[in-house]
Amino acid sequence: MMSKIKTLLKSPGSHKAGGRPPALLLQGIDKTFDGKKVLSCAGFRLEWGEVHALVGENGAGKSTIMNVATGVYAPDCGKVIVDGRDVPLRNPADAIVAGIGMVHQHFRLVGRFTVAENVALALGGAGRRCSIGEAAHLIEEKSGELGFSLDPNARVERISVAEQQRAEIVKVLLLGAGIMILDEPTAVLTQGETRGLLSLLQRLALAGHAVVLITHKLQEVADHCDQITVMTQGRTVLDAAPMAVTTIAQVTQLAFGEVKEKPPVQMGHFGDELLRIEDLEVGDGAVTLEGLTLSLRAGEIFGIAGVGGNGQSELVACLNGLIRPLDGRIVLTGLDLTNASPAQRRKAGLRIIPADRFDSAMAGDLTLSENLTLTSLDSGRFGPWWRMSRKAMIRDAEKSLKDFNVLGGTPETKASLLSGGNAQKVLLARELSAGTRVVVAHSPVRGLDVRSVNAVLDLLAESAKEGAACLLISEDLDEILHMCSSVAVLNRGRLSAPLSGADLNPTRLGELMVGHV
Amino acid sequence: MFESTLLIRRQSAPGWLSGLCYFGGLASGLGLSALLLMFMGVSSTDLYQEFVVQTFMTLQGLDQTVTAAIPLILVGLGTSLSMRVKFWNIGIEGQLWCGAMAATWVSVNDVGPEPVRLWLMMFAAMAAGGAWIAIALAMKLAWSVTEVISTLLLGSIAFFWVQHMLFGAWRDTVTGFPTSPSFDSAERLDLLGWGQVHEGLWIALTAVAVCTWLTDVSRFGLQAKAVGANLRTARATGLPVLGTVAVFVLGSGALCGLAGGVIAAGTEYRLSQSIGAGYIFSGIVIAFLARANPLGVFAVAVALGGITTAGGVLKVFYGISEAAVLMVQGLVLLSVLAAQLFSEYRLTNRRPV
User: Fold this and answer.
1) Do A417 and B226 touch (CB under 8 A)?
2) Do residues B91 and B157 make contact, with C-beta atoms less than 8 angstroms apart?
3) Which helix (H) or strand (E) holds A442?
4) A36 and chain B: CB distance < 8 Å anywhere?
5) How far apart are CA A331 and CA A272, in angstroms?
6) Beta bridge partners of A330
7) Nearest CA in chain B to A377
8) Which residues contact A154 (CB under 8 A, 6 or more apart)?
9) Contact B235 A365 (CB under 8 A)
10) CA-CA-CA-CA torsion for B127, B133, B138, B139, nearest 10 degrees?
11) How far apart, in whole angstroms, are the C-alpha atoms of residue B227 and residue A366?
C-alpha cells in the first residue's frame, strides 16, 4: 500500500521544459454568468518548471480562469489542455486526477482535525485510502523534502496561519499535484513568512513542478517569478511574458492603468476631539484586541494600517455595537457609548462602513430605497409608524442616487444587483447624511474599480472637510498615505503609537506591520 | 444527456418568468394529483364534478369550502407572519390546541358575563396561542434553542395536555366520551344562514386586513423584511429587531390560537381530540404557496378548503383514503417549489469545447 502511494506521489521529472508540452494550456476561454461576461477569449500558458505570476485588478477574471483550470467552473467555450492531453475537467475531482492542485485563500482544511487526519481525509476522497499513521509518515517525508518542519499530529485550528498554509501545500502535493495554483498566498503572511513561502515555490519549480501565483504584490512578482500573465476585464493582455524582459512599470500600466502621484488630502488643522477610545479590550474570535487607545479630532482622517486579520474586523464590530468589549471605553464628545445599542450610537453621529457591506450594512434582497430608508425610519420623513409612505421613500432615494452619482439602479432595484462601486456609493449616501460626526470606514475601496475608488475617497475627504472625524482602516498603504496625516498600525490585536510627519513612511509602516519594532 | 447541461444562477428573474414558473408548477402539481386520483379509480369526469363543479360552483359546495377555509386562512396567516422574520414556526398545531383549550376553559368555567363571553373566548384563544409560541421565542433568544425543534415539541406537549383535560377534568359527563361538554348557544359563533358558514368568516377577513396592514402599510413591514433578509444588517442599522420579531412571532402564535378557538366555537361547539389534526401541514403549504402574502393566503386557503371538501366526498363515496388528500397538497407544494428552480437558474447546453 505504502509503496503504491509513493509511486503515485512521485514528483514529476526535474528537467526543465525541454521539448515537453506545456503543463497547462487554456485557449479561447469564454465564461458568462447570466449574461455578464467575465472571461472573453482568455488564455493562459504554463510551462513545467516555472513560477508563473497571474496579475490583474479585482474582477479581472484571474480567479475565474483558475477555477476553470481546476474544474470548478465549466467554460462556455474554449480548450483546456493539461500536459499535452485534452482532458475534460467536469469537476474538481477530475482536476486532482489530472494533477492540478489549488491552494485557496480560505484553506480547505478541517480545523478540528490534525494535519495527518486532514491529509488522510483528502487522500481517501481521491480514492487512495491510507491510515492516519501512513499519512503522518508521508507528511514528515514531504515536509522534510521541502525543507520545513510540520507536526502531523498538531490540530489545524491550533497552528498558525503560515503553518496551515504549509499543511495545505503538503496536502495538495501529496494528492499528486504537478501543477500548483496559489490564490493570494502571501496576503495572510508576515514578511519573513512570505520570503519563506516564495523561496519554497521556487524550489518546487526547480524540482519540475509548475506553479501559478495569483497576486497583487508586484515586488513579489519581480523577485520570485519566471513568467507573467496579466489580465484585465476578462481578457489576457500580457500572455506569458518572461519576467526577465518585463518591467514592473509595464505591468502596472497594463494591470492597473496609469497610477498618478496624488497630493495628500490632509492639511493638519483639526478641531476638538470627537471620538476617544480608551484601553479597549475585545475578545471575540481568533484575535484579541488589547489596550487599544486612540483619539480622533474633528476634520481628521486617522489611518489604521495593518495586514487583515489582525483585529480590524473585531474593532469595527465592536464600534458598531455588534460585539461587547471586555474592557475599556468608547466616548463620543463626552457621551459614553461603550455599551450603547447600535441605534444610540447612530443617534450620537457614529457611522460605520464595514468591509463587507452585505454582511452588516445592507441587505442584498432589499431594494435601494429600502436600504436607504432603514436608518431613518423614525425620522418621520416617511410617514407615521402606522403608515409608511412608499412615495416619500422613492423620492428620497431618487435624490440620493442622483446626488451620489449611483449608476445602474433605480430606487426599486435590488441592492445585490448593483456593482460593488455603486453599492458602496449607496451606502455612503446613507451614512454620510446629516448628523454624521464620526465615520469608521473599513477597506472602503477594496474591490472597486479606479473611478469608484476616487469617488469614494473624495466623499470621505469631503465629509472630513465638513468637520466629521474619520477612521480609515485599510491594508492598502498607498490609500492610507494618500488620505491620512497620522497613522497607527494594528498588529496582532495591538495598536502602535501614531506616526506622523517624517516618521510616516512606507518603510516604517512595513516594519510595524510585520512586528519588527 | 445531462453531461453537457449547465445550471447558471440568474442575477434576477423578470416578473413574468417567476409568474410563469409559479403557475406552471401549480398546473403540473394539480395535473399530477389528478393522475394519482384517476389511478386510484376516480374517473376524470367525476374528478371534474367533485373538485370544480361541486366545491366551487354550487352554493352548497361553496359553503362547505368557505367553512373549511376559515381556520385555514388563520393558520396560513399565522405561518406567514413568522416566515417574514425567518422564524420557522413548525408548532402551529400546538398553538392551535392551546387556543382551543383556552376558549374551552372560558366556556367550561363560565368566565365573564354571557353577552361578551364569546369575545372573551376568542381573546383567550389568541393570548394562549401567543403565550405558547412565546416559550419557543424566549428559549431562542436566551439560549439560541432552534425554534424548529422547540415549536414542534411544544406541539406534542399541547396535544398531551388536551388529552389530559379531555380524559380528566373536562370529560363530557353526559356522553362519557373524551370531549368537553357542549358549548352553550351564547358561546357559539352564529351561523350566517348559508350552510355551515359562521361568524368566523368575519374574523378571518379581519385578520387578512390586519396582516395586510402590518406587512404592507405599517413600518413593521419594512423592519420585518430587513430582519428576514439580513439580521446582522438589521442590528447594525439600529432597527428595533427584538420588538419587530416579537410582534411577528407572537402574532403568528395568536393567529394559530385564534384558529383553534374559531374551530371549537364555530363548527365543533366543543373541544375534541380531532379538531387540530393536519393544520400544521396545511399552514406551511398555504404560507409557501402564498409567498407569505396575506391576500395570497386568502386565495390559497379557499382553494385548499375546496380540496379538503372534495377530499371528504372522495373519502365517503369513492373509498379514497385521507392520506390521498394530504398527498394532493404535498404534490402541489412540491411542484411549485421545484418549478422555482427555473426562475432562479438558467439551463443551457455547454458548447462543444
Assistant:
1) no
2) no
3) strand A438-442
4) yes
5) 13
6) A277
7) B219
8) A114, A115, A163
9) no
10) 150
11) 11
DSSP notation for A351-395? EEE-SSHHHHT--TTSBHHHHHHGGGGGGSTT--TT---HHHHHH
d(CA B292, CA B82): 9
Q: E strand or H helix at B16, and its extent?
A: helix B15-39
Residue with cell 390521498: B324
Q: A341: which chain B residues are within 8 Å (Cβ-Cβ)?
A: 238
Asked if B225 and A377 come within 8 Å (Cβ–Cβ), the reply is: no
- In this structure, the number of other CB atoms found within 10 A of the CB of residue A108 comes to 13
- Which positions ≥6 away from B129 have C-beta within 8 Å? B78, B95, B96, B98, B99, B253, B254, B255, B256, B257, B258, B260
Helices (H) and strands (E) in chain A, counts: 18, 21
Residues of A in contact with B221 (CB under 8 A): 388
pTM of this structure: 0.78
β-pair type (A179-183, A210-215) = parallel
Inter-chain CB proximity B233 and A76 less than 8 Å: no
Q: Tens place of pLDDT for every residue, chain A, 517 residues?
A: 444 443 333 344 434 445 789 999 999 999 887 667 889 899 999 999 999 999 877 667 888 899 999 988 888 888 899 998 888 888 888 898 899 999 987 888 998 999 999 999 999 988 888 999 999 999 999 998 888 889 999 999 888 888 899 999 999 999 999 999 998 888 777 777 888 899 999 999 999 999 999 887 777 788 889 999 998 888 888 888 888 777 777 777 777 665 455 666 666 678 899 999 999 999 765 567 889 999 999 999 999 988 777 788 889 999 999 999 999 999 999 899 999 999 999 999 999 999 889 999 999 999 999 999 999 988 888 989 999 999 999 999 999 999 998 888 899 988 988 878 889 999 999 999 878 999 999 989 877 776 788 889 999 999 999 999 999 998 777 788 889 988 999 987 889 999 988 888 877 887 787 664 4
| Residue B317, Cβ density class (10 Å: 0-12 exposed, 13-18 middle, ≥19 buried) | exposed
Quote the radius of gyration of chain A (alpha carbons, Å): 25
Contacts with B12 from chain A: Cβ below 8 Å: 414, 417
Chain A environment of B218 (Cβ under 8 Å): 385-388
Chains A, B: CB contacts within 8 A come to: 107
Task: Please state the three-class secondary structure of B177-217 as a single string.
Answer: CCCCCCCCHHHCCCEEEECCEECHHHHHHHHHHHHHHHHHH
Q: What are phi and psi of B192, to 5 degrees?
A: -90, 5
Cell of A272: 476638538
